[in-house]
């Protein structure tokens, strides 16, 4: 039994010819498309090394003063000098303590308020306008008040870190708890599930990626808040070291402290990312809602 070769009346071409024409028009992915779609683990280190080399030899060729833009090698030398100073590690400990304390306080408050706002529309209508209005206030303007209220010690830095870290975590928690699929909630209601069971089985798992996104931003912002608080008034901390380096025109020292702060932020990002892959391994990465 032989296969029939049908002809398209409109074009006059047979079915086999039409299939051949369509196959010939299928374009193969270009090199640039394949490059963009594939993971390139070597790309980020290559860009970093290229940037550092360009910075190192570019400042030498242009004869840029160290007081304006120090070379990376000079910054590394200054960093190693600080690493051998006990005062530096005391400052790192003070900033870390203030940032983590503010982060945990902000996270707890954001979780409580975010849960109430997402589940109770009345609470949302009452609370959210005040939270948004408070977020519009520049946080740097609050730092002098915190120094007056809580003194030059640790408490004012903790409050500054908590205030800056609070809003991103709150918004992500609210959006996450509201992102649960209505069909799944309705199905559980049909089977007689209580509100607590729905929250535990549907809303919380759906919100977990959002919560971790908010925690990640909140932890980075808490470091920023701690440093801002130290700028206004503190006895020790990385913010104090930055001010001291500024007063002494120690530009390599300033870059060294900034490098340490960047490493702290990167460590926070990687640490929370590692925890998220263990806790919320079923979820894809969610968009981050920032301040």
Which homologous superfamily in CATH is the superfamily? MetI-like
Q: What's the CATH topology label?
A: MetI-like fold
CATH architect. name? Orthogonal Bundle
At the first level of CATH, what is the class? Mainly Alpha
Shape: flat
If you compute it from the alpha carbons, what radius of gyration comes out, rounded to the nearest whole angstrom? 28 Å
- Total helices: the number is 12
Largest sheet: none
Summarize the helix and strand pattern as letters. HHHHHHHHHHHH
Describe the structure.
This protein is mostly helical and 291 residues long. The chain has one domain (71-279): MetI-like fold (Orthogonal Bundle), CATH 1.10.3720.10. The chain is 75% helix and 0% strand. It is built from 12 helices and no strands. It has helices at residues 15-25, 31-37, 43-61, 72-83, 86-119, 121-135, 143-150, 154-178, 182-190, 195-232, 238-247, 251-279. Helix 7 (143-150) packs across helix 8, helix 8 packs antiparallel against helix 10 (195-232) and helix 11 (238-247) packs antiparallel against helix 12. The protein is flat, with a radius of gyration of 28 Å. The N and C termini lie far apart (71 Å). Residues 285-291 have low confidence and may be disordered.
